[in-house]
């Protein structure tokens, strides 16, 4: 299947079919700001290297990207440290809920992968060591690779995360006790809560993901930011670890490397072939967008973009 | 990269480069029969849909396929039960060593996936319910899809496994205590130990794997044995769960769906594109062939067969 | 409080108060033979070194002693091996349900204590190494120390345990895989299921417990079977490990070293001071007799026999 | 054995025998202030209700009481909440190292017992709810029951604990995430670090322990602070949970309810009979004073104060 097809009707058809699912599941409400989001929101955007961007539904409305930010901070840290990054965070699926402290204890403070919260905190700590203002560096990087200048934090969301972030504070302190956080716990947490509060639309997320689609070359950036091999490795971690403890099921049903966030967004990328982002706020029991997962499954089944 | 290339020199080059690694690692010796295998053995075979089979080294010498048999029994059980199979075994990476009983306790007797021992025992139990002589049915199926009539069990290996198989016996009894084994524990174990003792060569394994390369159509079998969608799903489980608790690292470094066995074989498959089998008896700490893993990594890096 | 008091009215009063609790809880029914027991049964027997034996209710009716047998096999193995026994089984509370395999994996096949099933299997294995007919040796020992010649196994219960004993079979095989069972798994399990099926009355159990009350000297046996120090040690294990994962609560509420069984019996012993046995078949969530626990608590509170 | 004996020679004899052990083990050094303590220090003090106080060695030199403070805060919280305290903290041995987060996750933020760090944090949180200046209230309580006016915190130790207390901070945040801390995490931690830094001598600790020896009546306090039943319950928790994950072994070898601290002190109490405190800074692998444990064992073996 190639770029000469008009994908807009396919995307619209997919949205129509999954719309009833937006009534099921649960909008994340551990902080009030997320709980207020309208569960009827539903958007999708597709980027193809030779066909441009297709959108449907609320594809241009911004939402809290939450854990999708972990893809961007991983790329930033990977660029800075190269493969020595893997001395501080693993690349294995965790087999446990995303905020589990159990494995961290067994593994002596080395998180299983960069997409569980523990691993993302270590990645953020790397950025805290590399940048004077790490949260601004993250924002600038995302603005640069997406080509959208007014992407920003939501300070109320960031503050609210900080006020309710006892589990993340526990994790950061625990990792620190093993010596695997270098910056003060408070700084790492503050940066982390800010990166999670960034708001982007589906269309903006697939723009940013061009960096992975084009094997390391971002939109409007002259030099390559990652090598093709590094891009493949990021994609492999998305496939095996990107959707919490449902990654195996995601690979099985959908067959696309993807990263989800509790804001209801899911960003899927196949290097060389496509980026796809879907948004629907209500979540399944694993914390992945319910309608969004199904949309990805329908799209993948119909278009043959599965990597398998 | 396509089938018009002669891949034999590439395979030979890869073997030459990894040969020093055959001196490292540890040949499995939990049963004497496996421990006696010559650690210098090294073979590789490649099947391409439009280019036939290429081999190098000891590609035609048979070895104990061990856990690679789990791919074949999974296919057989999946054919029989369809997606209802997943009520009895999961599809998630385990995040724990391959013989762990811990998750089994937490998960009430439902193994995480069909490629850890616990899951393979449940799959074998399905076959025990479906066939009068399940071990013969397994053998016949492998003979059929590979087109090799004299593939057989190694009865000494099977007997030795039974004599030292206390961990598997523990697991089978434990699963039975949760009601997730239907046949008598002894029958399931006997069938399981036999399937693990089957001996095949790299060349024979890629022949058998044509079933997956051709999206469900086996060598010399008229009807499709699996649907393309089912083949993709088997491949996704191989990618996320096929190499014990190193599956994430395997996906990261190699990018190929694969299943390894403690006999030192690794079978990798990309549906529609290729099957690759490598054999070198010495294992790394995770139980995967050390030189074999590196051979897959070199081959994948040079040929672009990675799925990412 | 001393032996010149007539304790019979106190025992009767305690039974009257706890009788309503016999309607609550659940009679063990994992094997049919246990499930058929009348939940209205309620008996108690007290032995005092200077006052003889007092009984009330169904104190002379036999029931399945089940895990109370672990006290007797522990004494037998301790006599044979002395403190080298503790190389094969620990003396720490497990903090987990009584049939957990998790700690066994972490602890490399060394069970936490002799009163969880895993530990009792190791203790029984010790007896299998020491006696040609270990089950007969156990029976003979219990007959000897209690002075009751016709105590016996219930073969139907033993057979039924064997038919439903997958969890115990899992544990025995698991321990064997770590090398901490010396005899064949089948022999150990058969002996274990038989010892659990022994039937005794409350009165007979306090007779047998004289061995502990008199610091090692059993009823009608001339030589000392244990040293006073060994008796204290058995009592300490009863206190910290004798009532599954409710041992801390038992010590807190009752303050008596005790061992319970799923047949509804609980045997409590304070060396030098008393032995007390209560029987009521319905169990609480931890597997301890519900009315029996409360009877011990009332008795302990009123008489000052608590060790604290 | 009664109070008319002069126990001083026995204590001196015990110290002489265990003195060689002070060269083994490891002085706690996770904070510099503890690491500087002289490992040759060795003291013991005994209080008997009818015989007064006996001392030997460095019994009058103060040391960091660390976790022994948990006994005093438990008594304070128990007085305030009564048995409703047990809704927020359990009474079961943990079966895991003293700072484990694993069980906390399984048990939804309810620590197993008040003597592991997690449980002590909850107890301290109770005091934070009850007192405006909880750390001063704790100090005042200890001064009152020991009758020593100049007992005090060591502010350098408290500050150092705070600077290195990431594991405790992780635990406090984790418990807070389950809703089982009411006060701000910072306040609870600050109070906790202060209470651990209190310095007392062996002689002062047995003075304070008179409260437990006399079943609730403290030195020079007219009203009873606990009921006899509450005192027994505190003692039972000391026995089953007071020495980290070696409590079973402690009960087995020593047979005395006891609470140890990483400062090298161990306080043992038998209500109605005695209080014994020993101090030697070097610790065994479980975090209990090595020479101190052995001293308790020798003393218990020779005097018959074991509760079993």
TrEMBL record, chains A, B, C, D:
Domain of life assignment: Bacteria
Catalytic activity: L-glutamine + H2O = L-glutamate + NH4(+)
InterPro entries in the record: Beta-lactam/transpept-like, Glutaminase
Enzyme class: hydrolase
SUPFAM superfamilies, A to Z: beta-lactamase/transpeptidase-like
Keywords annotated in UniProt: Acetylation, Hydrolase
List of residues binding substrate: 67, 117, 161, 168, 192, 244, 262
GO MF, one example: glutaminase activity
Nucleotidyltransferase found in the keyword field: no
Enzyme Commission designation: 3.5.1.2
Keyword Acetylation: yes
Known partners and oligomeric status: Homotetramer.
Annotated family: Belongs to the glutaminase family.
Protein name per UniProt: Glutaminase
Organism in which the protein naturally occurs: Herbaspirillum robiniae
